[in-house]
């Protein structure tokens, strides 16, 4: 009974931990959304100003505001100017869409120089023009185009912070939902609770990584589309960049190269194999039992190089301040027979494999803090190489299957007696 109480408390602690993790990710997500919204707002303003009317502007005053702190100096070009529209005179102070200080390149300094030259009337006759909103003539701007370097910085920060926040918060919320779904399934039908996990809702187990490859490709493309233009604009400035944010920006293209290589390798694997599904019956399995079924390929599988399946029992155990994977058992079998195309267009190959005999080592649906997380996976390999991680199938393997229902019934009564998980 003491062990059961500790297990229930452990699950409660894990739910609290997921909740704290979700709260931890929210500030990152908020910063990412703010930066993304800031950048999107500037795009909308620049797009709307395409229809604004261009009129001559007279610069009344020009100044360069400098803000200095321990991190260095930032600048903002400021101006007061007048313009006429529809026979009326107006006055404005908006220079560009972004009214903040920055030190991205020398845009602020060069803009101030242009404003000062226009104020003194030392131009070549072209002067400076203001763009006026014809619907609201009191709304005008001197420079309506986006600053690519500053815009790219905002996009990168929005991408990094928003991506981290979304991943952390989404993963934590997914863990909470998954835990509640499995707990509810255990209470309603303990013998079939394992099917509450999305990957085991039927006897067709899809290879992990099918969607991950395309998500990684999209993320790598977006990252590089933002990082490389930003670096090009910053380092294309006439003034050499100082050690600081400009050099730090170089990290983003380097990360983009790594992401692109990783994404291309994973995509190449996925395109080589195509969609692959493990059709197994019956499920669940037991340690030492026999996996019977077939592998279904959307495209003709490669032949002549020796296709094989390998089943592994892997436990994630604590190792100091982190964790490590420990293989508890492994079994391998060559695929026998030739692929046969079925009327549904899929190619199927029979699979028969005796799992490693590890009594009591079960797949973790709700891992406890006082026990290692255990997973059983079936990998597909071609030739003597190790199995492709993008083609691993999670297996529902549970030890002591005949007593599982009785154990869950006892646990349910215990939870009711002590008033937990009602």
Please provide a written account of the structure.
Helices cover 40% and strands 26% of the residues. By secondary structure, the protein is α+β, with helices and mostly antiparallel strands. The strands form three sheets. The chain has a five-stranded antiparallel β-sheet with strand order 3-2-1-4-5. A hairpin with a 2-residue loop joins strand 2 and strand 3. It is elongated. The N terminus and C terminus are likely disordered.
Short description:
This protein is α+β, with helices and mostly antiparallel strands. The chain is 40% helix and 26% strand.
Strand order of the largest sheet: 3-2-1-4-5
Shape: elongated
The N- and C-terminal alpha carbons lie at a distance of 18 Å
Determine Rg (CA atoms, Å).
31 Å
- DSSP strand tally: 14
Output the helix-strand order: HEEEHEEHEHHHEEEEEEEEH
**What share of the residues does DSSP label as strand, in percent?**
25-35%
Structure characteristics:
alpha+beta; disordered C terminus; 5-stranded antiparallel sheet; 422 residues
Task: Describe the secondary-structure layout.
Elements: H1 2-48, E1 53-69, E2 72-85, E3 88-92, H2 107-120, E4 128-132, E5 140-141, H3 148-188, E6 204-206, H4 210-235, H5 245-248, H6 251-273, E7 276-280, E8 290-297, E9 307-319, E10 322-334, E11 340-341, E12 347-354, E13 373-382, E14 392-395, H7 404-418
């Amino acid at each position: 009974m003491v062990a059961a109480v500790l297990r229930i408390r452990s699950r409660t602690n894990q739910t609290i931990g997921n909740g704290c993790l979700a709260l931890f990710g929210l500030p990152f997500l908020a910063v990412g959304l703010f930066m993304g919204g800031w950048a999107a707002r500037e795009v909308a303003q620049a797009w709307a100003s395409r229809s604004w009317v261009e009129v001559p502007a007279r610069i009344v005053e020009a100044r360069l505001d400098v803000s200095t702190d321990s991190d260095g100096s930032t600048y903002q070009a400021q101006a007061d100017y007048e313009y006429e529209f529809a026979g009326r005179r107006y006055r404005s102070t908006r220079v560009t869409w972004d009214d903040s200080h920055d030190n991205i390149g020398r845009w602020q300094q060069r803009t101030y120089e242009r404003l000062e030259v226009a104020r003194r009337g030392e131009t070549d006759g072209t002067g400076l023009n203001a763009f006026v909103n014809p619907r609201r003539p009191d709304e005008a701007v001197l420079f309506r185009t986006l600053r690519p370097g500053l815009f790219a910085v905002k996009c990168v920060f929005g991408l990094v912070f928003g991506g981290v926040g979304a991943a952390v918060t989404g993963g934590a919320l997914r863990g909470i939902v998954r835990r509640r779904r499995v707990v509810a399934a255990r209470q309603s039908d303990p013998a079939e609770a394992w099917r509450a996990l999305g990957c085991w809702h039927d006897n067709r187990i899809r290879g992990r990584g099918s969607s991950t490859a395309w998500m990684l490709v999209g993320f790598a493309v977006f990252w590089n589309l933002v990082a490389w233009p930003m670096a090009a604009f910053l380092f294309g400035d006439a003034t050499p960049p100082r050690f600081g944010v400009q050099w730090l920006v170089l990290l983003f293209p380097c990360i983009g190269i790594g992401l692109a290589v990783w994404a291309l390798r994973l995509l190449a694997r996925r395109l080589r194999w195509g969609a692959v599904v493990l059709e197994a019956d019956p499920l669940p399995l037991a340690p030492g039992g026999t996996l019977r079924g077939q592998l279904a390929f959307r495209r003709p599988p490669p032949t002549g190089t020796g296709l094989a399946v390998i089943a592994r029992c892997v436990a994630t155990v604590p190792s100091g301040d982190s964790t490590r994977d420990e293989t508890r058992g492994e079994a391998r079998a060559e695929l026998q027979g030739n692929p046969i195309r079925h009327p549904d267009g899929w190619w199927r190959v029979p699979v028969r494999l005796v799992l490693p005999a590890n009594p009591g080592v079960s797949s973790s649906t709700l891992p406890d803090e006082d026990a290692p997380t255990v997973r059983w996976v079936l990998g597909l390999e071609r030739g003597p190489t190790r199995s492709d991680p993008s083609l691993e199938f999670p297996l529902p393997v549970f030890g002591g299957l005949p007593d599982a229902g009785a154990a869950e019934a006892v646990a349910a009564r215990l939870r009711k007696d002590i008033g937990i998980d009602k």
